[in-house]
Amino acid sequence: MKRDCDIIKKPCLTEKGLLLQEKENQVVLRVDPKANKIEIKEAAEKYFNLKVTKVRTANMPGKSKRVGKHSGTTSDWKKAIVSLQEGQKLDFLEQL
Questions:
Q1: Residue 18 pLDDT > 70, yes or no?
Q2: CA distances (Å), origin 53, targets 11, 44, 84
Q3: Where are the alpha helices (DSSP H) in 1-96?
Q4: What pLDDT score does 32 carry?
Q5: In whole angstroms, what separates CA 13 from the centre of its chain?
Q6: How many helices (H) and strands (E) does the chain have?
Q7: How far apart are CA 72 and CA 87, in angstroms?
Q8: Looking at the predicted structure, is the pLDDT value of residue 95 above 70?
Q9: Exposure of 66 in the CB half-sphere (CA atoms within 13 A)
Q10: What architecture is domain 4-68+75-87?
Q11: What share of the chain is helix, strand, coil (3-state, %, to 5)?
């Protein structure tokens, strides 16, 4: 059985993620690639003490990078967009 901190890796603090957080009451998280929507929902509810209405996921492919003559790729990762109930709020920048 996976722990909540193993499923949710970290928040995605991008411009698009912060805009979704302000306008749509949604939070963007970087999650374990093997986690499904049900596990993500339960982990977010327990870990952040919030009520989740919907979870959307996307598999993000790694980008190719080059340093000098060596080339490689960054690792693939999974993004989850978690919709919160009305009245619920989670702000990562206040906690920093």
A1: yes
A2: 18, 11, 6
A3: 4-7, 15-23, 37-48, 92-95
A4: 95
A5: 9
A6: 4, 6
A7: 44
A8: no
A9: 2
A10: 2-Layer Sandwich (3.30)
A11: 30, 35, 35
Domain parsing of the chain, residue ranges: 4-68+75-87
**What is the arithmetic mean of pLDDT over 10-31?**
92
Alpha carbon distance 96, 91 (integer Å): 9
* Encoded amino acid at 8, one letter: I
Nearest C-alpha neighbor of 80 from the set 10, 6, 1: 10
Count of Cβ atoms closer than 10 Å to residue 20 Cβ? 18
- pLDDT tens readout for residues 51-83: 999 999 999 999 999 999 999 999 999 999 999
**Residues in CB range of 63: below 8 A, 6 or more apart:** 73, 74
Cα–Cα distance, 11 to 56 (Å, whole number) = 15
DSSP state of 32: -
**Residue 50, burial from CB neighbour count under 10 angstroms (0-12, 13-18, 19+):** middle
